[in-house]
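ARCHIVE CARD
CATEGORY: sequence design from structure
SOURCE FIELD: tokenized fold
FIELD CONTENT:
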């Protein structure tokens, strides 16, 4: 997944502290993204007018800011993809999804959100994963795989 798009979705969904945008800009430069505003942002102190310069960098790079709902939907697809790829665990994905506070969704998105549900927290507080917890993990992985096959919001 494109790092610039992911950062944009996280920013819109409130998952990126604007004070952290200079470091994020530096990472984007390392990945090969470049624009005058992105270079400016990478050289700024934390929180030093970062929001405005970030938006300017996005415009220079041809990336639009989606609305919050679309950004959350894109992040849901992104997280499902990382789970299917083995980069994240179901519990990590669940925590990230809960921080988004997204409700509903369409088709496979709703199924993925329903599979996550609140149940896994109980088993995380015990000494080890129960059969119920392992079944929950399998259910989340299956729903993530189905979501990865569904059409993403911005493709």
């Amino acid at each position: 997944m494109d790092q610039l798009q992911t950062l944009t979705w996280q920013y819109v969904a409130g998952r990126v502290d604007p004070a952290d945008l200079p470091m994020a800009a530096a990472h984007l430069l390392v990945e090969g993204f470049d624009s005058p505003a992105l270079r400016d942002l990478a050289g700024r102190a934390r929180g030093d007018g970062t929001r405005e310069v970030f938006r300017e960098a996005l415009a220079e790079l041809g990336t639009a800011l989606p609305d919050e709902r679309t950004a959350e939907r894109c992040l849901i697809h992104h997280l499902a993809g990382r789970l299917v790829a083995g980069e994240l665990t179901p519990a990590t994905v669940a925590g990230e999804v809960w921080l988004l506070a997204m409700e509903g969704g369409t088709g496979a998105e709703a199924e993925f959100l329903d599979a996550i549900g609140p149940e896994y927290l109980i088993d995380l507080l015990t000494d080890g994963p129960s059969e119920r917890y392992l079944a929950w993990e399998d259910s989340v992985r299956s729903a993530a795989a189905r979501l990865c096959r569904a059409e993403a919001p911005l493709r």
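CARD ANNOTATION: The first helix runs from residue 3 to 12. The chain has a mean pLDDT of 87.
SHELF: design records, drawer C
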